[in-house]
Specification:
single chain, 43% helix, globular, alpha/beta, seven-stranded mixed β-sheet
Amino acid sequence: MPLPQPLPDVASLDLLRSVADLGSIRQAALLHNISQPAASTRIRSLERTLGLQLLERQSGGSRLTDEGAAIVQWSEVLLDAMRTLISGTAALRHGSGTHLRLAASMTVAEYLVPSWLNRLRTLDPTISVSLVMGNSEDVVERVRRHRADLGFVEGQRAPKDLSSRVIGHDDLVVIVAPSHEWARGTTVTVKELAATPLILRETGSGTREVLEAGLQPLGLQVTALVELGSTTAIKSAVQSGHGPAVVSRLAATNEVEEGKLIIVPIEGLELGRRIRAVWSKAVPLPPTARTLLTLVAGGPRSGVLPR
């Protein structure tokens, strides 16, 4: 049965969703690499096609009307299906998919992914890989939007709308500079830890999530001295004597062995976490992604701390 005419333009629906996400036609235009007047024209054309007002234009930005919010929600399935169509046809054009799009949390990307890719390329030297790093929330969002074939995150909970597999375990440790008073060999209580301003990753990172979840049942909250966007920056700040930090044991291993950092035992607190691979339920994993997933899910040889 033919669809009723006129049909809404898919690119305009995608633009509308970006306006909903960003709260601004100007920001959405930048994201879609078009001018603001062109973006406004597309939205007005979409409004005429649907016979609805979709946006309320304000001096500080644009807000979806109730009708606009409904259109964005209904268009999700259509836009996701269109991405599947585009990625599928690209795979057909270029073979079975020798380009792999990865997204990984900072710790996984810095300390695990390089060895995984070396092993993958020994199986097929023709495979090309693009890797985007971010915090765990960023990685999950890229996989949801089909901007990554496979993602790797840390944390306690698996996203319910994505397929996932636990590929290993890691734990968090408290680190200080050798000159810090906590480096004298005494055990620190969890209450002392919570009362001490820490150098932390930003909200949304797997490290921050696990730390906050570990303190919450004890009625305690984390106190931030400063928030930094990478583990490397955090370790540098700790070595400079700015204060204690909580990082992945994987990330601290080299500096601890070299005597640049000290791991401090915390009485009454364990901060274990799972490292997961995540991928879309709607789109089959490309062959290269399946191969990599098989490699990294192999236990101790994957480079992840086994448990």
